[in-house]
Design goal:
By secondary structure, the chain is mainly alpha-helical. The chain has helices at residues 2-10, 21-24, 39-65, 71-86, 110-122, 126-152, 154-165, 168-177, 181-201, 204-220, 225-238, 243-269, 272-284, 289-295, 297-305, 312-329, 333-345, 360-372, 376-406, 411-421, 433-436, 443-451, 456-463, 472-475, 481-490; strands spanning 426-428, 440-442, 467-470, 491-500, 503-506, 516-522. Helix 6 runs parallel beside helix 9 (181-201), helix 10 (204-220) runs parallel beside helix 12 (243-269) and helix 11 packs across helix 17 (333-345).
């Protein structure tokens, strides 16, 4: 008994990180019949898989019935489709600006390659993009559940699953924005799985696998560097005082990352001058580190409190549990990874909501473990309430989705109309790339070329487009004064199109609509 008690207190990841099987694998409430191992356990897992299946089908049903997109999704799809069609990374509609039509260097390529292969297999379009993102979300949710269950027990996995499904911002934004952040989160989870295995077994192969998936995270998006830094912090913690071993494992980590990144780095160095101009332009938008620390603090606050998709309560609750867990058991591998992300995120300029996706699943795993380690009576109540959370998540997801759709275009209707009625090359925001394909020239490319001193008339002649699709709601804030003047002086408004309640409307009916597309003839 003394041995069992000591094991229960110490745990594998710290002072209490892994309880004994009788406590952790106990099934209670809806998820099981109270048995530690056996049919009750298997039945509980069957229910988990059923709920995951329903969850994925719900996402796909929503996407098929009314898919939507945004600027990021169109911009990313443009690069991916160019790779699928022509085998090169470029943004053809940005022709003339930083030579983006010839090569795309400032972002790691892995997500573009994955999305491009998906387009090659299933065709290019908004629905294909949304299905890919839904599959990645489902894999990330399942991976979170599986890692929590493997390391901290059955109940931890179940509570982690409930927390992941109830994070509406994670679900909705991941699917609708078509960004690489969700693939970063998945690679981070796979890296975490092996780093936890390494901590238990000290097997060299597990550390190298963890390094490999962290490197793939970087190859997907530069925000993956935060997870590499997290592993480096863990190496320092585990080997503090043994500097030879510490240096050896840091060298192994960075060597794996360098090897994985090497093909991309060779590509970047193949046209270094263009790459430097693109990367310098990107970094120049963010300013120095001091500028970032000064100007981005409010954005950092907003990053964790945004409630656009009813997620502020989720982050408040999970961070409260996170703080409680650190106070109770001290720092362990997961908490160190999360804290490293939070600390280094201060130095990331132009922060976006999606950056929390890289470690939101880690927070869910940590919080799921803490809930599972509560007293049996409290745990049973929460276990029974988990079903209500999952059902409620689906209901709120439907409601949140309808709100999102009501505040933006029905892209299927609008894109279909534009594609049928405007056959020539057009100027539009990247989201309409799904309808226009290579016939679209990016309005943002025109903004940037104008800001670099080019004359509008010269740009229009080089582009060869005679029609502009102008979205007042989304483009007014970012378009320069010259562009607005161009609309007044160079363009003639020929029609207004909007979608209200799933119905496409035109002209005077749309004049008071907040979400509309104004169509101008140029020159």
């Amino acid at each position: 008994m003394a041995k069992k008690s000591a094991m229960k207190k110490k745990g594998i990841l710290g002072n209490g990180g892994h309880l004994d099987k009788g406590s952790v694998f106990e099934n209670s409430g809806f998820f099981g019949n109270g048995k530690t191992i056996g049919k009750g356990n298997r039945f509980g897992i069957g229910k988990i898989h059923l709920l995951l299946g329903i969850y994925l089908l719900l996402q796909l049903a929503l996407l098929v019935s009314n898919p939507k997109t945004n600027i990021d999704s169109g911009w990313t799809a443009e690069v991916s489709n160019e790779f699928a069609m022509n085998g090169k990374l470029a943004t053809p509609s940005w022709g003339g600006f930083l030579q983006l039509e010839n090569g795309f260097y400032w972002r790691p390529p892995l997500f573009f390659l994955v999305e491009g292969i998906f387009y090659k297999l299933l065709g290019f379009g908004l629905l294909q993009t949304s299905v890919l993102m839904a599959l990645l979300v489902a894999l990330t949710v399942f991976a979170s559940f599986a890692i929590a269950r493997e390391n901290f027990g059955e109940n931890s996995g179940k509570f982690t699953l409930a927390l992941m499904v109830s994070n509406f911002m994670f679900v909705l934004l991941s699917i609708f924005h078509g960004r690489p952040d969700i693939l970063v989160a998945l690679f981070n989870l796979l890296s975490l799985r092996h780093i936890l295995r390494y901590e238990k077994t000290k097997k060299e192969g597990e550390f190298l696998k963890a390094s490999l998936f962290a490197a793939l995270s970087v190859l997907t998006h530069e925000i993956g560097l935060l997870f590499v830094a997290s592993i480096a912090v863990l190496v320092v913690k585990w080997n503090f005082g043994n500097f030879k071993r510490m240096g050896l494992y840091l060298a192994k980590l960075f060597s794996v990352v360098a090897i994985v990144l090497m093909p991309w780095l060779i590509y970047v160095f193949s046209n270094l001058n263009v790459a430097i101009s693109q990367i310098s332009w990107l970094l120049g938008r963010h300013g120095s580190i001091l500028d970032v620390l000064r100007d981005e603090f409010v954005r950092y606050y907003w990053l964790f409190t945004t409630n656009n998709y009813a997620s502020a309560p989720w982050y408040l609750v999970v961070f409260a549990i996170f703080a409680y867990g650190i106070w109770k058991r001290g720092l362990d591998a997961i908490s160190i990874v999360v804290l490293t992300h939070i600390a280094l995120l201060f130095f990331v300029g132009n922060k976006a909501t999606y950056y929390v996706f890289a470690f939101a699943p880690l927070l869910a795993i940590f919080a799921g473990r803490e809930i599972a380690n509560l007293r049996k009576g409290i745990r049973k109540t929460i276990a029974n309430g988990t079903v209500l959370v999952l059902i409620g998540a689906s209901v709120i997801l439907l409601a949140a989705y309808s709100v999102v759709v009501s505040q933006t275009y029905n892209y299927y209707l609008l894109n279909s109309y534009l594609d049928e009625n405007y056959k020539e090359k057009v100027i539009a925001q990247p989201a309409f790339y799904f309808a226009m394909g290579n016939r679209m020239y990016s309005a943002y490319a025109i903004y940037n070329r104008m800001e670099n001193g080019e004359k509008l008339d010269e740009i229009l002649r080089s582009v060869g487009a005679k029609t502009l699709f102008y979205d007042p709601e989304n483009l007014d804030a970012s378009s320069p004064a010259e562009f607005k003047e161009m609309i007044k002086e160079k363009g003639a408004l020929i029609e207004i199109v909007c979608v209200e309640n799933g119905i496409l409307l035109k002209n005077s009916v749309c004049e008071n609509s907040r979400f509309r597309m104004e169509i101008y003839k140029l020159g």
